[in-house]
Amino acid sequence: MTEIGAVSEATLRFFNPATKNYVDRTFKEQMEVTNISGNVSEIEEKLTLHLHITLGKQDYTALAGHLLEAKIQGAAEFIFYPLNTRVVKLKNEETGINLYDFEK
Whose CA is closest to 38, among 53, 23, 24, 27? Predict the structure, then answer.
């Protein structure tokens, strides 16, 4: 999946491997979405989006991280690439993140 467009607000997540926790931060300003990439998978039998985003700010700096939520301002163009298989993830206790389970 890919996407481009613009947002007026976005909440990003950053994974801290030392604590195995995510840190969230919200940015409230007009930004260009230069890229979103990710996938749709099943976690505990629920469809889940796993998206990484890069945002361009007015001062030409960029932000990047996991996309938690955003408010589209202007346009958003999404392209999905279908797979002919189930994509299942299970929580890995050692890393603290959801990893693919190719046995499912």
Answer: 53
